[in-house]
Amino acid sequence: MNAPNKSGWKPTMPAGTDGKFGGPATTTGNKALMLEEALIFEIGTTETTGVDLPDVDDSAPSRLGKFARTDEIGLPGLSEPQTVRHYTRLSRQNYGIDLGFFPLGSCTMKHNPRLNEKVARMPGFADVHPLQPVDTVRGALGVINELAHWLIKLTGMHGVAMSPKAGAHGELCGILCIRAALEARGNAREVVLVPESAHGTNPATAAFAGYRVENIPATEGGRVDLEALKARLGPDVAAVMITNPNTCGLFEPDMRAISDAVHEAGGFVYCDGANFNAIVGRVRPGDLGVDAMHINLHKTFSTPHGGGGPGSGPVVLSEALSPFGPLPYTARTADGVVHLVEEESAEEFAKEHFGGPLQHFGRMTAFHGQMGMYTRALTYMLSHGADGLKQVAEDAVLNANYILRAMEDVLHAPYADSGPCMHEALFGDAGFEGGLSTLDLAKGLIDEGFHPMTVYFPLVVHGAMLVEPTETESKAAIDQFITAFRSVAERAKAGDESLKAAPYYAPRSRLDETMAARKPHLGFIDPE
After folding, report:
1. Contact status, residue 367 vs residue 331, Cβ threshold 8 Å
2. What span, in angstroms and rounded, lies between the C-alpha atoms of 521 and 299?
3. Which of 49, 200, 383, 459 is the most exposed place for a label (fewest CB within 10 A)?
4. 427, 409 in Cβ contact below 8 A?
């Protein structure tokens, strides 16, 4: 990171007339170890290949039938060293949690302990296959069952669906459980209420499930307007989807009153658990009247995050919704053996545990879920213990409030007087001069060596900047970030025009993000 160290030393980077690095231009375009990487089509050609294969006998029968390729594939041929170097050089231009601090808000990105990774790579877990006979995976099922037990205990809920693959997938699972429970009553209902301070996936999930979504306004203090919610409740409301702590970084003190009002109206309470990291070990959502809540294992329990890789979003369920959870799930019998409850054994299990038939809505996935995420999360829990998980929440909240108080004099902090924030601090762009925007500040942070925070969300704050330090960052790392953040914020308030062209020192300068989103070039275009 380019934040100043204690001695005040900084690398000398004289800027040229174009604002880029000073000094003579290089023949290659490289800047020492900052390598300018060509496109893969510019390295190899479609006329060459990096492998040596025997000629194909055209008379040999093909097993592809109508799926046989008739055109050239059109990819360039590279040797193994060329391929390895290309992707390694590209990887060096990535920013990751192992390189520096991610101040993302509502997207908890924290250190993934290497112990978790070691356990996930143990052969009995890493090599498990979903089609193995159940008797050969009792240990893996035991891990799933133990993790489920921890999740139920930490949330104060009755049951848990482990199979959803991500937070949004878990949201859908919870809403489908609610739908199944209402249909069992003969009253499906048609409306889901979503507060302004909820995550953006909440209304999308409800709409995808076929519900009509209506918004509930926030108070000036950034919390759900309880009276407006009560006024809208009625026989057509299936559920309220609420984020607590909410996206303004605030805890909802009326949560119990909200749940009571929704239940009295015959609806259910869905809680977005993405921000559970702020309250784990401190507050049990079940005690607040929550009926369903997904848990992002990557956010609260340190499994890897993002990149389109394997995820996990277990959904904890109240006693009223547990019979409607999806298959499969695990169950431990009196002899201590953990079983995988599938279709053929579900009814018997339901009679024993629920006193009636199981009314599940089906499956969320073909198999159970992501074994690597389960082992990592359980390792994290066992490493910390109940007292350690409580400290996780306390440290995350402490770090966020430290940033809030360090920045409130230079940035607009709309809810600084609403009491302590939870896991994240929220700022706005009020006071920026010279037409500068939140985006300009975010790009300026890149030059300082920091990945920007979440910007322009939540929508209730103009030019929002949502900062979440998590508990894994040291005070020294947070102080470095605050130094850089204050510096760029002061430039924005002073109308520093140079921010409009930031970043200057990144591998690529600023892109036209609108065009990149609406008219992306996804194929190679030969300039000739």
Report:
1. no
2. 33
3. 459
4. no
